[in-house]
Amino acid sequence: MAKLVLIRHGQSEWNLSNQFTGWVDVDLSEKGVEEAKAAGQKVKEAGLEFDYAFTSVLTRAIKTLHYVLEESDQLWIPETKTWRLNERHYGALQGLNKKETAEKYGDDQVHIWRRSYDVLPPLLSADDEGSAVNDRRYADLDPNIVPGGENLKVTLERVMPFWEDEIAPKLLDGKNVIIAAHGNSLRALSKYIERISDDDIMDLEMATGEPVVYDFDEKLNVLGKEKLGK
């Protein structure tokens, strides 16, 4: 039976300052580093061994993966980075303080932007200096693919090709996989894996630095789910 571990990156500097982050590349906070290292210790204590690792192209997720693998003596395993595992793009909200945004637009509206399945945030134009079109890590992408804002539905649609092409085949082959990514890209994967409804996905939380372990059968049906450290 294959195992899949999902882990949201440790607390980032913008988590700490309560800002919408999305595709902005911010680092881990000191607490985030400690969360990532502690997650690695939990992985080691649980005796989890991985064959492959996947992460996004954003620093906070990459560093979290490396801390987890280092603490569990598995830094050597094959690793793939992909933009398809990035956090959802928060559009024009990126960089804004969440509390101040709620005061301006109302708590209900901000909750919808953050948690709804199919409502888009205000979009960021391609000619904005903060657009990912200007970021070298996306230079090989068709500029029309680079988002100006995403909801969870769109995030799921761009995560799924990578799941189907790269992750699921390894699990079907009996390989153990770890994915270090972001709250919403992992919520999207969880929605698909657990067959969570569009309404219920609003209530799913992914805690920073908390490894979530899935056990699958030979057809990738979920046999069990465990949060390490709980």
From TrEMBL:
<dbReference type="GO" id="GO:0006094">
    <property type="term" value="P:gluconeogenesis"/>
</dbReference>
<feature type="binding site">
    <location>
        <position position="98"/>
    </location>
    <ligand>
        <name>substrate</name>
    </ligand>
</feature>
<comment type="function">
    <text>Catalyzes the interconversion of 2-phosphoglycerate and 3-phosphoglycerate.</text>
</comment>
<feature type="binding site">
    <location>
        <begin position="8"/>
        <end position="15"/>
    </location>
    <ligand>
        <name>substrate</name>
    </ligand>
</feature>
<keyword id="KW-0413">Isomerase</keyword>
<feature type="binding site">
    <location>
        <begin position="87"/>
        <end position="90"/>
    </location>
    <ligand>
        <name>substrate</name>
    </ligand>
</feature>
<dbReference type="GO" id="GO:0004619">
    <property type="term" value="F:phosphoglycerate mutase activity"/>
</dbReference>
<dbReference type="Pfam" id="PF00300">
    <property type="entry name" value="His_Phos_1"/>
</dbReference>
<dbReference type="InterPro" id="IPR013078">
    <property type="entry name" value="His_Pase_superF_clade-1"/>
</dbReference>
<feature type="site" description="Transition state stabilizer">
    <location>
        <position position="182"/>
    </location>
</feature>
<feature type="active site" description="Proton donor/acceptor">
    <location>
        <position position="87"/>
    </location>
</feature>
<protein>
    <recommendedName>
        <fullName>2,3-bisphosphoglycerate-dependent phosphoglycerate mutase</fullName>
        <ecNumber>5.4.2.11</ecNumber>
    </recommendedName>
</protein>
<feature type="binding site">
    <location>
        <begin position="114"/>
        <end position="115"/>
    </location>
    <ligand>
        <name>substrate</name>
    </ligand>
</feature>
<feature type="active site" description="Tele-phosphohistidine intermediate">
    <location>
        <position position="9"/>
    </location>
</feature>
<comment type="similarity">
    <text>Belongs to the phosphoglycerate mutase family. BPG-dependent PGAM subfamily.</text>
</comment>
<feature type="binding site">
    <location>
        <position position="60"/>
    </location>
    <ligand>
        <name>substrate</name>
    </ligand>
</feature>
<dbReference type="GO" id="GO:0006096">
    <property type="term" value="P:glycolytic process"/>
</dbReference>
<comment type="pathway">
    <text>Carbohydrate degradation; glycolysis; pyruvate from D-glyceraldehyde 3-phosphate: step 3/5.</text>
</comment>
<feature type="binding site">
    <location>
        <begin position="183"/>
        <end position="184"/>
    </location>
    <ligand>
        <name>substrate</name>
    </ligand>
</feature>
<keyword id="KW-0312">Gluconeogenesis</keyword>
<dbReference type="InterPro" id="IPR005952">
    <property type="entry name" value="Phosphogly_mut1"/>
</dbReference>
<feature type="binding site">
    <location>
        <begin position="21"/>
        <end position="22"/>
    </location>
    <ligand>
        <name>substrate</name>
    </ligand>
</feature>
<dbReference type="InterPro" id="IPR029033">
    <property type="entry name" value="His_PPase_superfam"/>
</dbReference>
<keyword id="KW-0324">Glycolysis</keyword>
<dbReference type="InterPro" id="IPR001345">
    <property type="entry name" value="PG/BPGM_mutase_AS"/>
</dbReference>
